[in-house]
Amino acid sequence: MFYEVMGPLLKAAAHPVATQNAQGDDVDRFHAQRVAQMLERIGGAWPHLFGALRRENEILAEALAIDPEASDPEASDPLAENRRLLVLAEQTMATTDNADTRRSLRAALAETAHLQRAALRAGRQAR
């Protein structure tokens, strides 16, 4: 329930931040508008972030030839798993001489970046 409510709460926080600081000087108003814009975008993207993270982990594991059935204590925490996979990808890129492995990892990283952009774009469109 917490994760479902967080996005709408962040979006709802944007309006009071922007309007409450409307009486300040130009710098205060500018900063308030930027914070409000960030809250709105993060709130809009929130529902898409967890699915994107899960898919990113799948893509990275596949590119690194990690058996998805292999049990890993980090796997229950998708953020920790993502961190582990990114570190492994970085280590692999730094140590491998295999051009196909490098190409596969670059493609996987490009695909994960695309997923992140799509989640953020969905947040901007959810206004």
Brief overview:
This protein has 127 residues and is mainly alpha-helical. The protein has four helices and no strands.
Descriptive overview:
The chain has 127 residues and is an all-alpha fold. The chain has one domain (2-125). The protein has four helices and no strands. The chain has helices at residues 2-20, 26-63, 78-95, 99-125. Helix 2 packs across helix 3 (78-95).
Ordered list of secondary-structure elements with their pairings:
Elements: H1 2-20, H2 26-63, H3 78-95, H4 99-125
Helix pairs in contact: 1-2, 2-3, 2-4
Number of helices: 4
Q: What is the radius of gyration computed over CA atoms, rounded to a whole number of angstroms? A: 19 Å
Head-to-tail CA distance between termini: 22 Å
Integer count of domains: 1
Q: How many distinct beta strands?
A: 0
Oligomer: single chain
Shape: elongated
Low-confidence stretches: none
Helix residue percentage: over 70%
| Estimated structural class | mainly alpha
Strand content: under 5%
Average pLDDT level: 83
Kindly list the characteristics that best describe this protein.
mainly alpha; 127 residues
